[in-house]
Amino acid sequence: MLEKDRIIEYYRNFKKELYIYIYRFTGSQENSEDILHDCFINLIKYSQDHEINELSVRAFLYKTAHNISINFLKRSSRFEFSSIEEKGGGNIIGEDNTVDEIFTRDLNEKIYSIINTMDPLSRSIFVMKKELNLSLGEIGINTGFSERTVRRKLQKAVKYIVEELKKTDFI
Q: What is the Cα–Cα distance from 6 to 29, expressed in whole angstroms?
């Protein structure tokens, strides 16, 4: 089982980047905080039966955050869909959605699926820059890397996304 001080250290080291990652899924501060809390509860429970490797903690937390966020979204979408059915809502797409809006939504979904295949650090940097509009310096402070390293990682992430979109004929 992990020691209390070790858990506090992990929380301090990973809370910001995990929160940002989770917030990208949920779009809600309250839900993101709840999921972040659940991630660390899962870490504590897991550590009771398994040896926690110092190098794998971050990966474990990201995997847990991802799974809990996906489950949250599944529960939320079921609720929203059942609400539409109860209201007798026929057309889910809606009359005011244009083809461009639908394409944009599909493109965003594809980009997010590509982002999820990236390593956690690149994914975090991309989300902090593009979703939260943080400066390279602020991202550097959050990740512990220099501004130059952050810029390089961001450029590589964007290049990777573009290459993957080309492979699937989105662009």
A: 26
